[in-house]
């Protein structure tokens, strides 16, 4: 039986990750990994090639055309046609949609499980402006993945997960915390 946490996690994965472009022509478009090149001119050429392929398929706007929040509005439905997600998505949903068309995970929804074991002597560092933070431990990637258990590590105390033994400790970020309490 799935717990509510796992049910929500699997629902989010299925709704945000199962994006398929239906047009067969778009199955061969360049993806993000194809555009990761050192040479800026070569990268610009690949982006222009991507924009050209998308324009030929009937998509006037790509993720690379977004310059401000005003660019995050779809063209709207055409008369007599059922609107697609491309036509009607706005705001953050449009940004994510355009990103997924280009193979870019805009909101970085990938796994955040550490790829090493944190020990009491060498815990996984958790960045924070405060002296403590709540951390959700989901196990060790590829070895011991479990339901999320919430821990409260501090700058002085290491928190250890009772399920997998993973250890976390706060590494305080020095700098402007964004809000001063001196009113």
Automatic annotation (TrEMBL):
GO terms for molecular function: metal ion binding. Gene3D superfamilies: Cytochrome c oxidase, subunit Vb. Transmembrane segments: none annotated. GO terms for biological process: mitochondrial electron transport, cytochrome c to oxygen. Pfam families: COX5B. It comes from the Eukaryota. GO terms for cellular component: mitochondrial envelope; respiratory chain complex IV. Zn(2+) binds at residues 137, 146, 161, 164. It comes from Hanseniaspora valbyensis NRRL Y-1626. InterPro entries: Cyt_c_oxidase_su5b, Cyt_c_oxidase_su5b_sf. This is COX5B-domain-containing protein. PANTHER family: CYTOCHROME C OXIDASE SUBUNIT 5B, ISOFORM A-RELATED (PTHR10122:SF0), CYTOCHROME C OXIDASE SUBUNIT 5B, MITOCHONDRIAL (PTHR10122). Keywords: Metal-binding, Zinc.
């Amino acid at each position: 039986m799935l717990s509510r946490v796992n049910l929500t996690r699997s629902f989010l994965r299925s709704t945000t990750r199962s994006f398929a472009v239906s047009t067969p022509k778009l199955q061969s478009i360049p993806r993000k990994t194809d555009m990761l090149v050192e040479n800026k001119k070569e990268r610009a050429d690949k982006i222009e090639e991507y924009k050209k392929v998308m324009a030929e398929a009937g998509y006037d706007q790509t993720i690379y055309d977004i310059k401000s929040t005003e660019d995050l509005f779809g063209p709207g439905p055409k008369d007599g046609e059922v609107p697609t997600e491309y036509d009607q998505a706005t705001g953050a949903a449009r940004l994510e949609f355009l990103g997924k068309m280009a193979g870019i995970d805009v909101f970085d929804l990938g796994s955040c499980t550490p790829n090493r074991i944190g020990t009491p002597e060498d815990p996984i560092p958790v960045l924070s402006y405060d002296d403590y933070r709540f951390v959700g431990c989901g196990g060790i990637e590829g070895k011991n993945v479990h339901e999320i258990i919430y821990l409260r590590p501090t700058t002085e105390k290491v928190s250890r997960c009772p399920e997998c033994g993973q250890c976390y400790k706060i590494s305080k970020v020095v700098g402007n915390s964004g809000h001063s309490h001196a009113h």
